[in-house]
Amino acid sequence: MDFTYSEEQRMLADSLRRFIDAEYGFEARRKSARGGGSLDRAVWKGLAEMGVLGLTIDSEYGGFGEGATSQLVVQRELGRGLVLEPVTPSSVMAAAVLGAYGSAAQKQDWLPAIAAGERIVTLAYLEPGTRYRPEAARASASRSGGGYVLNGTKSLAWHGEAADAFLLTARVAGSDEIALFLVPRDSAGLSVSGYPTMDGLRAADVKLADVAVPADALVGQPGDGLAALDLGLSHGIAALCAEAAGAMEKLIEITAEYLGTRQQFGKPLAAFQALQHRVADMLVQKELAMSMAYVAAQALDEADPAQRRRMLSAAKVTVAKAGRFVGQQAVQLHGGMGMTDELAVGDYFKRLTMIDPLLGDSDYHLQRYTQVMAA
Length: 375
Prior knowledge:
Number of strands: 9
Domain Acyl-CoA dehydrogenase/oxidase C-terminal: 223-368
Helix content: 40-55%
Structural class: alpha+beta
Domain Acyl-CoA oxidase/dehydrogenase middle: 127-205
Shape: globular
Protein name: Acyl-CoA dehydrogenase
Number of domains: 3
Keywords: FAD, Flavoprotein, Oxidoreductase
Low-confidence stretches: none
Number of helices: 11
Domain Acyl-CoA dehydrogenase/oxidase N-terminal: 6-118
Largest sheet: 7 strands, mixed
Strand content: 15-25%
């Protein structure tokens, strides 16, 4: 896989960076986050018009049919700008699941709307007490007439408040199968309770109380749930790794600029060799994270599921560790100002810290990596 930017990718990256700088500055992001939302419809429309939301969706459904390398380019820029909007859960993860496992009707109904920014779909697979293990789902799907009745609770649905539909996992009654259902937000018996997360994003708990869905709400076959979910999570992890690398890149630029302007003992902090070494260490970790983001993107084309999981888990753990290091160093190098809420450094630190628990924390992925290697 060639990760050298093509001319089209370079133009996309430049256009996206200019758009974020112009329409999504620090103050605008802060205002959106503190206003209790993480979806600016004007920004969302702009991302759709630039082709970001339909980047990997097939052209027959209004997208551009690009691959993992182009997605990495976009996610890197979104990370630099700390973009709040639900690009990863909807346009990356949900689009990948529906593109691979959705029926013809599901694809036609939802993929063009996702690409155009008209609809948002997110995954809801976590449950209280199950940690990151989707196979331990307790939500149930009972067959009823020609469809199913869903009951249970999902937690920490990423951008659940903004979603028009959820890709929900549930255990089919009378079997060990985990199925995946596409459930509209306005379904009777479905309720959503949203709340903020540490990094300014939003999550939600989704409760299902006798939610009746037709048979065509099933995504794939009843036994395809875990495989379909794993595909979505794989694309999400690759996107997160690229986003984190972009955030580290921008945070280092912010820190270097601060060290160049802050005076101590009559000269800028950047003149002190000890601080130069710490910035150099940050750069090393950022480059390591970027390299592992390439590994994660390459994993999406890996035919062997075990090898794909190994590569993604290795990337996720390495990037999370690098993000913590870069974030902590940036806060410390800003001195007392780094501990205040006045500078952007705090926002980047929080986001990089939250990269670890999203889509499986380091403990989970280390265990998964070990299991794959042992097998």
